[in-house]
Hints:
Elements: H1 13-25, H2 32-39, H3 42-45, E1 52-59, H4 68-78, E2 83-90, H5 95-101, E3 104-107, H6 115-120, H7 122-142
Parallel strand pairs: 1-2, 2-3
Helix pairs in contact: 2-4
Amino acid sequence: GYVNDSDSPGDGAAGGTGFALRAAFGAEIKPGADFVIEICGIKEALKNASFAITGEGRTDSQTASGKLCQSFADECRRKQIPLILISGSIDGADTEWLRKTFAAWFSLAQGPSTLDSALKNAENNLYRTALSIASLIQTSKRTG
């Protein structure tokens, strides 16, 4: 069918590609994060989960605006599943939002560093952070 408006959400994405796909092929535009949750089977995977872990390169004010971590957090909240965030770095200005969204949050950054240094040490920092989270979970299981 003929599309006569270009004001639908997603129409301006990638230089108007969303509108072009709707107009030319009748495509349905979906928020990317919700689509990823759907195609990855996240809802099914959460059915018997005690907790979940998500992550991203940098957590900031944009995270709360429909990025995957926020959509995942919304899904976990609906199912009352605590969500842990691991992020390369966290802009901690809005700790109220972090507390409302995640059960806990961890930054891989050990302090100020260059991007090159952060990338070089990412694997070790992720391992160290994941080990800390696993230790915390084991401790909580033992203490009830």
